[in-house]
Amino acid sequence: MKHIFFLITFLLLFSCHSIERKNVEPINIEGIYKKNNSSTKLELDAKGLYTLYNPKSLDHFVIEQCNYASKGQWRYINDNNAIDLISENYYQRQKGFEFEIKSENKHSNDSIYINIQLSKDFNDVIPTPIFNVLINSNTSNLIETSSQNIKISKKVLANNFKNTINFDILFKVYGNIFYNNRLRYRILENYTLDISKANYFTISLPYFDQCFYEFEPYYHDYILIKDKKTLMWKGVEWIKQ
Q1: Sign of dihedral through CA atoms 172, 176, 177, 178?
Q2: Percentage of the chain with pLDDT > 70?
Q3: 106, 116, 170, 204: least CB-packed within 10 angstroms?
Q4: What is the value of pTM for the model shown?
Q5: From CA 218, how far away is CA 1, in angstroms rounded?
Q6: Domain range spanning residue 51?
Q7: 98, 89, 170, 167: which is closest to 127 by C-alpha?
Q8: From residue 149, how far is each of 23, 83, 168, 183 by CA, in Å?
């Protein structure tokens, strides 16, 4: 009987010890990890923030390059022995979404006009976008165009005073190219346009630049911890430096 008692006690102690070991967070997860066969680096700092740095350009010419591809928060998940990433765009509004609207009177008074002003990066490195404009959340009033100058008849508006507008910037996907960045950007949502004193609205997006366009979003993206020095992410090993 004593043997059975000691056996049960031993099994219980071993079980508790195993659970404790499972819940112990691996030592020194934070650090800089380099992608295998690449100069791309992932930094996990002690404050729970991550930065995914772009690879260094090997071009002989001096070109402008974004320092990082993504940044946000990371946390350790002990049940899966993994790292969970959430990029900053999911918990704060990024600067690239900031806009300015100028109201004035121009052209015919039976229509409203929307002029979209983009940063210089759209002329150099950002593809031509599609502008999606929705008036008063009525899908029959949806306008989709690549023109930066949009004319809307006042006949489709709810009244001659205040109307709401949703404004998105879209990028079309062609071929088998895989995109890490976002393809849809909601700039305005139920924004009120007062057309009682103006009919020409200029929407400026001064901070929608190359780095904002190329930003990579991650929402609960898992990185597996292979060992103390190695992470496995996107099918590739990342080695701690």
Answers
A1: positive
A2: 83
A3: 106
A4: 0.82
A5: 57
A6: 2-92+216-240
A7: 170
A8: 58, 45, 15, 21
